[in-house]
Structures are given as structure tokens and as C-alpha cells.
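pinning this so it doesn't scroll away 📌
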Amino acid sequence: MTLNTLKMIIFKKAADISSFIREKSPEAKTIGFVPTMGALHAGHISLVDMAKKSDGLVVSSIFVNPTQFNDKKDFEKYPSTIEKDIDMLEKAGCDLLFLPNVAEMYPEGTNTETHYDLGYLETILEGKYRPGHFQGVCQVVDRLLDIVQPDCLYLGQKDYQQCMVLKKMTEARHPKTKIIIAPTMRETDGLAMSSRNMRLNEADRKLAVKISETLSFIKAESGKGYLEDIKERAKQYLAAEGFKVDYVEIANASTLEPVEKNDGKTPLVALVAAFVGEVRLIDNINL
């Protein structure tokens, strides 16, 4: 079977998919990888589309990773739409799907002595509000990269800090893998696409769009000058609308260090994390 005639093949064992990729890699030349936790949407498929344009073999994975959830209830409520996900990946032209269980991903258990040196990135924003989260993210992606050995790893910008964390991890442990970051895909009203959106009821879904509206407000107001007042107004607006706000931050786009004043030269990013009811949403915008 050549790659041109390949229909999507599903693997549940790491050894099986690794062996298949090794066999096909000379023909494929480059391998693109799109890791997911399922509950797929158009944002995920846009990553598959990017990989299809650049790589000879496109691999995706669906695995809800328990080690990156610092809230057990959040893990238990994470949406699952596996049959729909498989159909979407097939229609997008994905070549291989890795669909492991926890025992396959962590044959020696989820407790590991491996600690990923993430420095400052692990102490702020998502790192601060979700302790242990990025260690879990690195743990699962490190394992997946060992299995797939891709040339390119495709990620979405919605998880801005996670992209930076994974870039740091891959540079240290998988230097041959290049990270490609795709723009955030949005609904027609501006809400960032997210698997968590499936958990929003009708009223909360209407409310959720105010996060992207707040980011647009920050962008419009963040010309040269001090930024603290803009952040505070954004927080107060979201809180008044009924959100429980974890953070509204304006930071250096390269380091995520908070910035107090816009000098008009340094690339900046605005980031928000807030609860709509029980559902925690994140979003960001480049300034």
C-alpha cells in the first residue's frame, strides 16, 4: 500500500504505529503530527489541513491525558465525541490516528521522576492557576513525540503559553521536531474555538463571546502608554458581566513577562482566563 492510496488507519498500540511510521517514513519524507484530546472542531482540522499541505504522512492522536488536569472534576467532564472525531479526521485526509488508553501511554504508571525545566513559564498565568498542568502536558507530548518521531508538530495559538512550553520542551528533548503554530480559529461571533465550548449552556455560550470582545477592547486601547488601567478595566468589565476572572494580562509576546508600558516597539500579547459558569475558557490576541 502506497501513501497515495492510504486510508486512515487507527492504531491503539504504540509499538504498532511506531513500526508503521518507520516503514513509511522513507516514502513520506516528512511526518506531520497533530496531537489532540478529541472533541474535535474546525481548529483541529485546520492543523490537519496545514500538515497535509506540507508533509507526506499526517498523524493525529486522541488521548485525554489525566496528568495535565489539576482538577479531577474537569478531567471527568471533558467532552468525548470519538465517532464524530474519527469521521472528521478521515474526511480531512489524516493518514494515521493513534488512539491509546492510559495503560498504553503510561505503561509504568503516570507517576514519573522526569521533571521538565520550564523556568519562569511554569510560574505565571496558566502555570500559576493550574499547578502541575504543564508538567503533565510535557509528559504526554514527550511520550507522543517518542512514539511518532515527527518532523513537524502542529499547535494552535489559542493555547499561547502551552505553545511556548512545548517549544522549550522539544528544543531540549526532540530537537529535530519543528513546531508550527497556527492562528486561533474562531466562531462567527468571535469566540475562540475550544472543545470546552461543548460544555456551555445556551446562556453561557452567549456570554462567552465577551472574552474575545474584551481582548479586542484591549487591542484598541493599548497604544503607546501605561497598560495597568486597561487591564483593570477589562477585569472589572468581565467580573460585572458574571465571569470569575483568573487573569487579564498584557505581556511580552516572546517571554510572557508582564509589561507595564507599551513602548510601541516590543511585540505584546494580551491573555485572558475566566470561568463562564463552571467552564474555564482561555483566549489571547497579539497586540
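📌 and the second one:
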Amino acid sequence: MENQKNIPLSLYGLDALTLTEVLSLPKSFYGKQLYQWLVKGVSSFEDMTNLPKNERERLASLMSSACSSTVESSESDESGATKMGIRLHDGKIVECVLLIDKKGRHTACLSSQVGCAMGCTFCRTGTMGLLRNLSAEEIIEQYVHLLGVSKQPITHIVYMGMGEPLANIAAVTRSIRYFHNKDAYNISLRRITISTCGVVPGILKLAEQKLPVKLAVSLVTADNRTRDRIMPVNQKWDIMELKKALIHYQRVGGKRFTLEYCMLGGINTDEFSAKKLSTYVKDMDVIVNLIPWNPAEELPYQSPSEEEIDHFTLMLDRLHVNYTRRRSRGQEINGACGQLAVPLNKGLEYDLMVDEEDEE
């Protein structure tokens, strides 16, 4: 039997030359043909009809599929959003979402980790803890699965799914370069957004790479004490250290970024919060994205009323804060911001601990 030791778990993220090498393809143009099939979303070797039959059979004997598999999928009749559960090669599961806006643009919301270590108290993913980082291939595969159910090309990507992208920046940026490759999906870098809860070293690393993607930062509140309580990351890098990093990021790249402001009923929508926010955004070219909290029964928050939102935005108008209001998409299938979590992963933390002990 052919030695399978060096066969990768996934073929996504690899260029044609690398595919030729790792799969020991007898002819280099087979690698190009295989690459083209993968980009189209075809993961079954049997369906790659321009490859010789004997080569397809050989590849199938090496690995059953070039891609991970879906375990569940739910679609919203209201917004057209689709949420998918993806079973990875080690059995762990992540969620990704296809979003469709009023203009008909299709956006892939991708996860970068299985779970999340940041522990933001308003986010359902934070209740999972962190199981592990995703590889670039596993990130790319989410897009491929969503492409399979999308009725139109997916033109935008947001790293706003499960996990903290800047805590897995190497895999995230590698996947971005694959999406941007003209021979793959040719997605403009300005149509790709990375969202972070405020991991300062990651922001500085992103500035150093000068990768012209969009940056979104989850602020939630510009008051240090309140943010300490709601977002543990603030205890490591507080709002002033975060602001210093963002100003540096902007000076290096000259790009406007977004501050995501999740509105929590009765907590961060009063006059004090508005004034704090107004002071914080000074000296930065930034737009504040107001997002009503998306409900999660197990979390101790409530969505603000329409009256509360209107009153808060009126105060921001008077303080000349540049903002937009986001309408949640995918909430009805638990696919909106902060709602992704996978119950099927519960109990897998022990498996991860065992793996780490074995490595020691």
C-alpha cells in the first residue's frame, strides 16, 4: 500500500505545484486540474472527470475526500441566511454562516477557532472555551461549503464567526491570501473584514503586514470599568492601550476602521456611555457600528428597546459621533453575531487535554 504518512488532511490552501508534489501526481497538469476542481467546490475525486480513472481511484484510496463534511444546515425564510455546522477532520465542529443583505450581496461569515478563549460575557461562543485554532485549510473549507448552498457568488468575507481571528493570525492571513488569489476566488482584500475583541499584538502585527483588509474592533463600551467586567480582554489591554494600537494601525495604513458597539439594554446606552464613546473616537477616522445585542437565553443580558436605541442615537447625533445601525441577519437561526456555539463540541475539552499530555 502506498505510504500515506505525508498525505495532508485537506487539499485546500495548496497551490497546483504543491498538490502535484504531496499527491505524487505523475503529470504536473494533473495538479492544475485538481486545483481547478477544488476551487469549484468539488471534493470527491470521482467527480473530477478530466483526471484519468486510475488516478482518481488512486487518490480516493489515499484520502476519502479532499474536504471536511457538513453535519447540519439551517436556512432562514426571513433573511435567506444559512448556518452550517462543519465536522472537521478530528471530529470537532465549527459553525459558519452565509449572509445576504438587502442589496443581494452574499457574505461568508467564517470561524477561525473551535470555540474562543476571550470569554466576552455577551457572546455565546465565549461559553465554549477554546478547543483549538483552525488551520488555513479548515477556514477555506467553510467558504467552500457555503459556496455549495449559495445561489450567487460569495463576494464578501467576514472573520466574525467562532473564535478570535487575531489570536490565530498566521492561519487567518494565509487563508485571506488564498481567497484573494486570482486563480482561486479573486476576492478583493477590501471586501474582507477581520473582527477582533481588541487583541493589541494582533492589531500591531496586522499593521506590520500592511494587508489592506478591513478591520472591525468590538468595543462595546468606552468605559474601562464596564469593559473590564464585560470583556476580560480589557484587563490585559485596556481601552487606552487599544486606542494607541488603533491610531498606529491607522497611521501605517491610512484606513478607516469600524468600532463594533453591541448595545446591551440598560448597560451601555445611557448619556454617560454616549459621552465616553464621543471622547474615545476623537483623533481616529472611525465609524461606530451600533448592533443591538442578539438574544441568548443562557446569558445575563437583554436587547435594548427601540426607544432606548433611538434615545442613544439621538445623543450620539448631538455629540457628532459618526455611526451606522446594523440590522441583525441570521438571528432567527442563531446565526447572528455572538450567537454561534456548538453543543456537539461539549465534552471535547477532555479529548484535547489528553492529546496535549500525549505530546508531552
